[in-house]
Structure formats: C-alpha cells, structure tokens
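Usage

Read records sequentially. Each one opens with the input sequence:
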Amino acid sequence: MPFLSLSLYNFRNLKNDKIDLSSKEVFFVGENGQGKSNLLESLYYSAYGSSFRTHTDGQIIKEKEQNFSLRALYTNDKESTQQISIIFDKGKKIIEKNGKRIKDRKELINTIPCVVFCHDDMRFATGEPEFRRFFLDQSLTMYDALYIDDLRTYKKILKTRNLILKECKYEMLDIYDMQLAQKGIEIQKKRKKAIFQFNEIFGDLYERISGISGVSIAYLPSWKEIKEEVGSRIPEVNDILQILRDKREQDKIMNTTLSGPHRDKIVFMKDGKLFVPTASTGQCRLISLLLRVSQAVYYTRVTGSKPVLLMDDVMLELDPSKRQRLTAMLPEYDQLFCTFLPGEPYANYKKENTKVYIIKEGEWNEER
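and closes with the structure output:
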C-alpha cells in the first residue's frame, strides 16, 4: 500500500499529529465540516504538491497560523519506504522527496498516483467545456511528463499570441502561428488517442450500472479533421497554418485566438445526439463518477500500475442498487480512502483489515 502514515502541521482544521494509514482500505467517518475532506485533500497534496479544492495554498493554512507542512511515508514498487515532505511558509513552497529538493512538481508524477472523486466532478458532465478539457489533460498528465511540457509551452505561446493581437503587432503573427500549430497538433493527437481509449472503458461501465446503452465520449477538436475523398485525417501543420490565416481577421477583431486546443470540446453522445441536455441529474452524476472510474482504469492500462482512490462522499447521491453495483465495479487500486457520514452503511463496504477513523473537530480516533 502506498501511504503508510501522514504527519500534519497547521493543515486546515486538522490536529497537528501523525495518522497511521497502513491499510489497503481506510474510511473516514464523521459529520460534515469535521475534517474528512481535509484529510483526503492532505493526501492528494502530499502526492502532487497541490490541492484539488483550491489554487491558493494560503487558504489551506489553519486559522491564525502562518504556515503548514506535511510529511508522508509511503512505499514504492520495490516495497521500500519513501518520504515526501512539503513546507509552505511566507508564500513559498518547498517539496522534498527522500530529502532531495523537488524543483518542478512534474517530478512527482507516478510517485503516488491518486484519482480523487468529489462533488465538484459534476462539472465534468454539466459544466463549461474547460472542465472537460481539464479532466482530459489531468488524465494525461498523471503519467506523461512530455504532455505537461506540451501544455505549458502551448499556453505560453498562446499568451504571447494574444498579447500580439491586443497590441496590434500583426507582423509577428506568422512566427507564433507556426509555434502554436506545432505544439497544438501534438496536444490534439494525444487527446484524440486518450478519448479513444476512454471509450473502450466508459460506455460499458455506464451501461452495466445504469442499464443505458450507447453512451460515449466524443472529442470535437477546434482544428477539425480534414475531409478527403478517401475519408478524413488529422490536420498537419500546414493545414493548421491555413486555418489560423483564415481566422486571423476574426482574431484581430476579438483580440484573442479563437481556435486551437484551448477551444476543444468533449461531449457525451447517445444515438448520435448530445446526451447531457436530456439526461437527469442522477444520470449526469453517474457520468462524473464513471469518468473517475474510467480515469483509474485508463491509468492502469497505460502504465501497468494501480492508483490510490480518494472518494469523498461519492455514494450519497446514488440509490442503493447503484451503490452496490458501483462498489462491486471499482477499478483495481493500490489503496482506497473513503469518507462517510455517520448514518451511512459504511460497515457494508468494510473488509477484514479496513481501518475506520471517526473524525470530529479535526481529530481522529480509530473505531474499535
């Protein structure tokens, strides 16, 4: 199991102490606002050096304090004990892995791969396109450091190109169009391949739990495929340069780049029609849950490794039959962390060595 223990200091409302996590399944049980989600957040933060709940690290510091720190002990594939420590103080973050300073958070990928299920995942089904792009990019960056570099470079090029448009320095556009096309096409290829692999997982899962067949994920790139007599193909750099030239006048009017991977769409289809606009809230909630399940399966298929699952109150909105089917179909995992309200039947999901902690006012006590 990856996580062996976690030591916390000034992390949200959690007590400054060490928690034993040496079990394949760990449950956190407590009322809302007691610290269950904070514990999941601290695990995710230990794995990636960032939060899934906020982009502002200062919001994590316990009230009236000035800094926070985490220290996680975990095991790697060779079963040796490793350590990650993170200190955030005066707006600066220091991350160390086995005593060695981490200069870039991408160095942490594949260290403790985590898939987090939370209420905000509903945005992947019903939110704006940017949330689905985020989910797809997150799935790829869980294991592909080159994709992280591609995204970072693309965003820098895009930012510069938009500045050129705002400042009317149009003579420079040809240079940045070439850079945007070269980097953007790499992103588009990887996104298309990932969606193909996701569809091998997602539709079957959705049918088995909901009974609704034919639901799939469609990738609609901003730079559309080129139609030819023999079919269609992914655009090449020269094709994209022509697309950018064709849209240049519109870009000038709007002072922004109107096409590219930052405008891609990912949608859910059934029988050739958009599924979400007519789907019920429960069906959309199931989409968001099964996207996370698919993300875990996808990660394992691509890397051969199993992730850690962090599940934050994910059972609350499912009826009993769907809960049972979902728990029976959870992907393979190295370790599982779940949060529950006291009234939920969490005992039904326990295994022989499951650790159960009762959480109250940021403190935890193991259930006996």
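Summary fields computed downstream for this record:
- The chain has a mean pLDDT of 93.
- The radius of gyration is 22 Å.
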